[in-house]
Amino acid sequence: MSNLIIAPADQPDREGSIMNITPESAGWKYVGFQVIRLEAGQAFRRDTGDREVCLVLLSGKADVATRSQEWLAIGSRMNIFERTAPYSVYIPNDDKYEIRAVTDLEVAICSAPGNGNYEARLIKPEQVGVETRGYGNLERQIHNILPEQQTADSLLVVEVFTPNGHWSSYPPHKHDQDALPAESLLEETYYFRIQQERGFAIQRVYTDDRSLDETLVVNDGQAVLVPKGYHPVSAPPGYDCYYLNVMAGPIRTWKFHNDPDHEWIMVNPNRR
Fold first, then answer.
1. What is the distance between the alpha carbons of residues 233 and 67, in angstroms, rounded to a whole number?
2. Which uninterrupted H or E stretch holds 24?
3. Of the candidates 25, 18, 22, which has an alpha carbon nearest to the alpha carbon of residue 33?
4. Do the beta carbons of residue 94 and residue 153 sit within 8 Å?
5. What pLDDT, in 10s, does the model give residues 124-139?
6. Taking burial as the number of CB atoms within 10 A of a residue's CB, which of 97, 202, 236, 248 is the most buried?
7. Residue 113 preceded by cis peptide, ω within 30
8. pTM over the 0.85 mark
9. Cis, bond preceding 171 (omega within 30 deg of 0)
10. Are 96 and 43 contacting, i.e. CB atoms less than 8 angstroms apart?
């Protein structure tokens, strides 16, 4: 298996964690990503330390508390593929949080360096920007959970639903150069869920010089590290694809560069 693919544990550990990607384990500087699965009544507690955190309730309901805030029985999506926007909670660095499962629960814990500029807050589904992007078999549904238009120090968080037979993160684009205003440097993780679980997605990660050029078969519950390069995704016929993206870098802005070989698709979609 490629070292860009991170597989979940077969069973949660005693705290509920099934996946934990740190900057150290990924070999980069900014993005951290963890997935926990809790049974009703089980709790998970952490200090944020020097990192800001965005908790995304992937499915289920929870009580969430920080040092100064508490939100009870949040969460309305019982299954990711209901395709409704999730509840999320933003928590700054130098804080702490407790997640207590009201129902069986899956939570993504997204993290990046924090500067203490913003207070903890609840992000309700109606505050999530929902858009349809692309056309034809490039069409997909976007949930902008923590886009750059919303306040945070480093984190950018978005989820994408790609219908079976469609492509997303397409045309292939990258954001691996600190070359603003044309392109920003952002590390990125993709956390995949597939409907049905026996299905798969395809993701290619490649650079212009092909020093990195991998085509990945990604199964339900796996994550992909994108340290650099272009990174399109395909959902095979029969298997709808979900992924949660977490991005962070030295400057909190998403400026991407399309692969010149394929940019014509957006300029003139009828051209062959």
1. 39
2. helix 23-26
3. 22
4. no
5. 999 999 999 998 999 9
6. 248
7. no
8. yes
9. yes
10. no
